[in-house]
Amino acid sequence: MDAEKMDENEWRYHGEGNKSLVVSHRKCCIVLRFLKFSPNRSKTPEEIFHHLQNIVHFGKHIMKQFFGEKYVHYGEVVHLSLDFVRQLCLKIQSERPESRCDKDMDALSGYAMCLPNLTRLHFPEHRPILCVEIKPKCGFLPFSSHVSQEIKHKVCRYCMHQHLKVAKGKWKRLSKYCPLDLFSGNKQRMHFALRSLLQEAQNNLKIFKNGELIYGCKDNEDSLSDLNELAHHLKPFFFPSNGLVSGPHCTRTILKELIHVITVTLLSSTDDCKAGDVKTVPTSQGRSYCEASAFTKELIRNGKNKMETSGLPRDCLLYKTLQVQMLDLLDIEGIYPLHNRVEQYLEEFPEERSALEIDGPYNESFYEKLLDLSAEDDGTVEYALRKVQQYRVAMTAKDCSIMIALSPCLQDECSEQRPVVPTSKSRFTFSLSVLDLDLKPYESIHHQYKLDGKIVNYYLKNTQAKDDSVMSSLLKENENCTLVLHKM
């Protein structure tokens, strides 16, 4: 990529989050990722370069070790001409969602990250590509003794947070998706979870066709969520001979095929990297189902109290994701006092921040400390910081996304080097990637602690109010039933 000859018209707006904005090249399978800042916040080019380099090193030296090399694409930092960056910034401004414009794309430093475009990756040119991006969220219930509210041992964070998000107007409806169903390894539960994501994608599911978003949220207010329209896009992939009739039956059949393919790919092993299979804690320490899951409720309604748990294959990507998530051994309630211990030490000795390596370097030494799972607190700052760093890495895995790239292939085209998943009428080669792997900021722990309290308290209050409402209606029914006694 020649930085001096770059033309802003060869790039288009791809998407953005809270901290970065991404543009994709119209022809090459690459994206540029720029940092975003509030208008009143300025950083020097050197600080921005260091920040981006840290992101690359964390992906390369830490997350690659946990997930395996084939899954993690860490990219490289590139320096671009300021004229190109400014012209690009002007060009894409009108395409940005209004709700994201409170922060500006960095157009002053000239630094960005160059990464592969995962929505178009790994397949020959002119081959149609379907990409499914899933943000699975946390796949286990906390088992820490530091948890103060019993409800956290029974209802997962995602299901509780749904109530607060709907109350605040972020989403219109509660999603029936529960991460514990997806991470269960039980195909029936996984199918239910994926079907729930399709019905209420929120920001947990996006589907791309040839790099273009065809389903899911562009932003909170802008959603492509017509399942019949989605089925129309998917039909040539799953039923190339066009033998299916149109209508609701067709939509259901196509979506069923999609769910089957996603499930098979998520349970598959496509990586022989031994470092990816990191053993942290046994998945059986906590309850394997969430009481708020619509699947669980349906089972109980049908009189089935035993939850089937097949378990995840140890070499599949969901298992690896869950193992990294479970570096959160203490829950935020156990981490917060340890974070305060580090903060108090830094107040006394601010010059020690660099020596403690809070912000890197992210190297083999940092990785080795993450693998020290000893739970006995010796009262030192070193112990406290180790647990805080493990928590930050776990939170990163809880918020990562999994990208499944699928491309149809004929029987004689399918290469032995690339995994294949068959459907009733077609076959797909596929690849898996993990993205959104920036380490969660050390400074966010105070916010996480406060948010955790808000989520739990609102959920308890909201569900208690509903229970009271049900009891009240039952009492009213009883009041209307007057018992009349007649003299004998």
What does this structure look like?
- Helix 3 packs across helix 14, helix 5 packs across helix 7 and helix 6 packs across helix 7.
- The protein has a seven-stranded antiparallel beta sheet with strand order 10-9-8-7-11-13-12.
- The protein is an alpha+beta fold and 488 residues long.
- It is built from 14 helices and 13 strands.
Topology, please?
Layout: E1 11-16, E2 20-25, E3 30-37, H1 45-67, E4 76-79, H2 82-92, E5 104-105, E6 111-116, E7 130-134, H3 157-167, H4 179-182, H5 187-199, E8 205-209, E9 212-219, E10 222-224, H6 227-238, H7 248-267, H8 294-301, H9 317-325, H10 331-348, H11 353-356, H12 364-370, H13 381-398, E11 401-408, E12 420-422, E13 427-435, H14 445-480
Antiparallel strand pairs: 1-2, 2-3, 3-5, 3-6, 4-6, 7-8, 7-11, 8-9, 9-10, 11-13, 12-13
Helix pairs in contact: 3-14, 5-7, 6-7, 9-13, 10-13, 10-14
